[in-house]
Amino acid sequence: MDLLELINFYVIPGIVLGSIYALGAVGITLIFAILRYAHLAHGDLATLGAFIALASVTALGVSPYIALPIAVIATACVAVGIDKVFYEHLRERPKIVTVMASLGIALMIRAVVQVVWGVDTETYSRGIVRPENYFGLRIRDREVYTVLAMILLVGGLQLFLTRSKWGKAMRAMSDNPNLALLSGIDNKKVVMLTWVIAGGLCAASGFFLGLNTELKALMGWQMLLPMFAAAILGGVGRVEGAVLGGLVVGIAEELSVLVIPSEYKAAMAFAILLFMLLVRPTGLLKGKVL
Amino acid sequence: MTALLSMEGITGGYGDADILQDVTLSVEKDEIVVIVGPNGAGKSTAMKSVFGLLTIRGGKLLFDGDDITGWAPNRIVQRGICYVPQVDNIFREMSIHENLEMGGFLKKGDLSAAYDRVYTLFPDLKERRKTLAGSLSGGQRQMVAMGRALMLDPKLLLLDEPTAGLSPKYMEQIFQICRDVRDTGVAILLVEQHAKQALAFADRGYVLAAGRNRHEGTGADLLADREVAEMFLGG
Amino acid sequence: MEFLGLVNYALFTAIFIGIYALLALGLNIQWGFAGLFNAGIAGFFAVGAYTSAILSTPPDDGRIGGFDLHFVLGWIGAMLAAALVAWPIGKICLRFRSDYLAIASIGVAEIIRLVIKSEAALTNGARGISGISRPMGDIGYMESQIAYLVIVLAVLIAAYVLVERQFNAPWGRMMRAIRDNEGAAEAMGKDVEFRRLEAFIFGAALMGLGGALFAHFNRSITPEAIDPMVATFLVWIMLILGGSGNNRGAILGAAVVWIIWSVSEIATDRLPPEYAIQAKYIRLFLIGLMLQLVLRFRPEGLLPEPLRGDRGEDRRTSKSGADRE
Asked: Is residue A290 part of a domain?
């Protein structure tokens, strides 16, 4: 197989998938860093975002790309709501209790999706989309938009975290929560901000997964392991790490079919996760170890 | 003249146990007061009680005309008391400038006057203000920690063992900085393990042992006192 | 005839309660005693079920196994296999906080599911393994269920007695000391990592046994036999509701949750067919909600952990004084 085939059939899909993972992984790494637990409902939140976008497309008849901001805002609100109703009361308890609760929330979100939208597979638009040819590289428009969206969203987030007062407050809470409290930083506001960002990014992740493949109730849950692997690979708490991790996991997953049977594609993320925990738990960019 | 800070008969602790028993001390507007005592005397605890980090079961805390007993740290910060913990007192992953910015988080409006004030006190920090705080030396980190606390222009600064783990050179530097800070109109209450050096530079001191007052007086007086010397200034 | 149907249904339910109680006991060792968050229960269940199936069925074309061993050997094999799978996972993940173990265990369960589905030579793939002999399976329908129930209860009681004894023995006290204050336990020279691994493996073995019991009751095992996340979640809420750290709580929780689950199934079966599929997910939603409510309002469960002089507070789920993180 020549280089071009390798790129077209493995690397490009890997980058697209990796961008989708990255969007989810950034949210996971933020929640790890600021709230200090693993949010097991993250994948299903992405599913919810994807389906809310679908609902917007069918109900309002708009293009999926218009539905995306709607889904982002709606999912951000849902995330904040879930925290207020279910997680807030568990804050005084050991963190593992919230992890347990989030497993239940995952199930609940998935159940809502299955009740409201049924169990059939859906898509945003019918028809086959053929890739364009750019000097031998075969890329579909939606693939470009996916990667572009990831870059813009994460880039915007980075600007927020490094330039704005509340973004720095989030970093301060991640860095030293006690000192942040002593400095008068309002914990509740930071937490809410974290959920808004994580929820919004989840929606984008789910949306682009649905856009590039299809929508089904388990789509987000199946992304959970890769998203966590990406976050841990990059280094917990490091946004750039989550992006790097996402891309690595995505590309590795696509490339893996060259060496292992394709049924085990999903095992790649798991292997990466275990490998990192064994060899370098702080991740590539030296994050925290919880 | 009423003192800036007045701790009257404070009894309290963290959980159910009382660590402090009827502790009384005061700090005037332009002075440096140090709390010394043997290990486990409750020195840091006494300081933490001023900042609202303790369960107070008896006594009163008065600051600048207000009764601040039982106030939450957030409120106390806004009232004009800033606290520098002994450990974990900087944001390691943030630059010096960002550390200061977080110190001034509660301030509405422009922070440039506050930055000027801090950078004038710590010129070393100004040069390096984009460096990550975690990569600095111990003495520089302590400066960042103090600078962070000074951003809100407090009337009283609480320092918990600021010279812990520092070389004598940095220790002297920190004491000098304390004097400079006091000269800008900020009162300082600090806890120190290095009793001899601390009493030498402070205006007044309190000796605590087993959670109670034992001695008090000017720094010089306490240094000269035989009982105090026996207690722990031996070395 | 109605009555007979009811009796059979009750027997069926009791057997399932017994099997799930075994799973909950296993989880109690891992979570209740050692504070380990295992979200991959279904994986160990499946390993046990398939191992016993492979060992105790007659030879079949196209797949290995078929050793046609006695079912007891099959069950022992199931426990060993589950323990063998738990060992490397434990070795890698137990050093870290429970969060990482949670993710890793989700991954393990997923890998196991993939292996079961794909390695037809081992597991017969999607078709699964059938023709598993049920002990006392050749007598009448109801009689055979009664007989199996007796076997399940015997296994459950044996497991309960064993675990309960360990709980009260120095081993159990040590486990809980490690769980509640790792630093102090380490300072006392306890090999924390080894003890945790022990607990993890023991719990996994019990889960494997539960899987084997299921396979032999069902007389077959397929990848779709249980919905992995539903089963895993059910066991979790059984333990939390029943009372983590309490062996009787585990069993009680299994009974309560399974009865709620079954009764709700009967109730929703009466709905018109359009709602049939949604019904299952509504039940899932309610079970998930139940967990949130229990965690918030009664985290210690119905039967709290037995007092050991610490005022009976469930350290793992109730308010902690200082934030340990």
From this structure: no
Structural domain count, chain C = 1
**ipTM value for the complex:** 0.90
Range of the domain at C153: 8-227
Contact check, Cβ <8 Å, A184/B88: no
- Quick one: closest CA in C to A119, which residue? C277
Is B98's CB within 8 Å of A185's CB?
Answer: no
pLDDT digit string (tens) for B28-46? 998 999 999 888 888 889 9
User: Which residue on chain A is closest to B51 by alpha carbon?
Assistant: A182
Q: Per-residue pLDDT tens for B152-174?
A: 999 999 999 998 888 888 888 88
Q: Answer whether residue A263 is part of any domain.
A: yes
CA-based end-to-end distance of chain A: 43
CATH number of domain containing A113: 1.10.3470.10
**Residue A151 is part of which domain span?**
3-124+132-279
pTM (2 d.p.): 0.89
Residue to mutate among B82, B105, B111, with most A CBs inside 10 A, is B105
Q: What three-state secondary structure class fits C221?
A: strand
Which positions in chain A have a beta carbon within 8 angstroms of at least one beta carbon in chain B? 165, 168-169, 171-172, 174-176, 178-185
Residue range C243-291, pLDDT digits in tens: 988 899 999 999 999 999 998 888 887 778 777 778 888 899 999 999 9
Low-confidence ranges of chain A (pLDDT < 50): none
